[in-house]
Amino acid sequence: MKLYGYWRSLAAFRVRIALNLKGQPFDVISTDLIKGDQFDPEYLKLNPQGVVPTLITDDGVALNQSMAILEYLDEVYPEPSLLPADPLARARVRALCMIAVADIHPLVVPRIRKYITQDMGHSEDELNAWIGNWTKKGLEAIEAHLSAHAGTYSEGDAISLGDLCVIPQVGAAALFKVPLDPYPTAKRIFDTCMENPAFFDARPQAQPDFPEDMK
Ligand SMILES: N[C@@H](CCC(=O)N[C@@H](CS)C(=O)NCC(=O)O)C(=O)O
Fold it and tell me: DSSP readout, 190-215?
């Protein structure tokens, strides 16, 4: 398979973890979101929304939207399962995924940052205040969910889609320089997951397109 992604993309990070957990090798095609590679007409044929990730299956089919890709991978490669058997636990996992994927992440993506600074004329400081605010509010929501339901991982003692969605979000807080002390459960699960090579190798800092000057 081929994965169009970018080192900093939290949505691509989710998919990299899933591919690693499922033991599926993949080639990474770096799509530089700052340079605007996502708007290349050839890429738009694969992802008309102009965002990453896009997964190209072994049959050459292009799949968009990280949650749809995660569920596809879990259905086609069922081991290890990334959803618990109990319907209530599955609902909690999906709720946690949505906190990260639908409510937090879209507020800080490049197109929103660009709109705030270039189109609305806000300063970098104002942009950073926006990012800091929504990152903290997001972590508060994640911590509240985790402190009620987590075991070793975000739902009980097995890795689930909840971890695949939350861990990139917690990792992003470090990139945005938001301290994790107020979110001890999220920090604990982040540290546990980072001991697993499937997560560790998927982190932004391990990607071939991670900038030299940030190493
Ligand atoms: N809901 C989408 C989000 C995709 C998305 O916004 N990806 C970001 C990177 S994490 C992107 O490509 N942004 C390009 C832009 O904002 O111009 C998913 O989960 O796949």
Answer: HHHHHTSHHHHTTSGGGSTTS-GGG-
Q: Please work out whether the CB of residue 38 comes within 6 Å of at least one atom of ligand 1.
A: yes
Does the beta carbon of 100 lie inside 6 Å of ligand 1? no
DSSP conformational letter for 22: T
Residue nearest to atom 1 of ligand 1 (CA): 65
pTM of the complete model beyond 0.90 = yes
* pLDDT of residue 214 exceeding 90: no
Least Cα distance to 152 among 163, 166, 168, 138 occurs for: 163
Alpha-carbon dihedral angle through residues 65, 179, 162, 51, given to the nearest 10 degrees: 0
What φ, ψ does residue 56 adopt, rounded to 5°?
A: -100, 115
Q: Domains of the chain, with CATH numbers?
A: 2-80 (3.40.30.10), 87-200 (1.20.1050.10)
The confidence score (pLDDT) of residue 179 equals 92
Total count of residues recorded for the chain? 215
Question: What whole-number distance in Å separates Cα of residue 100 and Cα of residue 109?
Answer: 13
pLDDT of 108 > 80? The answer is yes
pLDDT score, position 26: 98
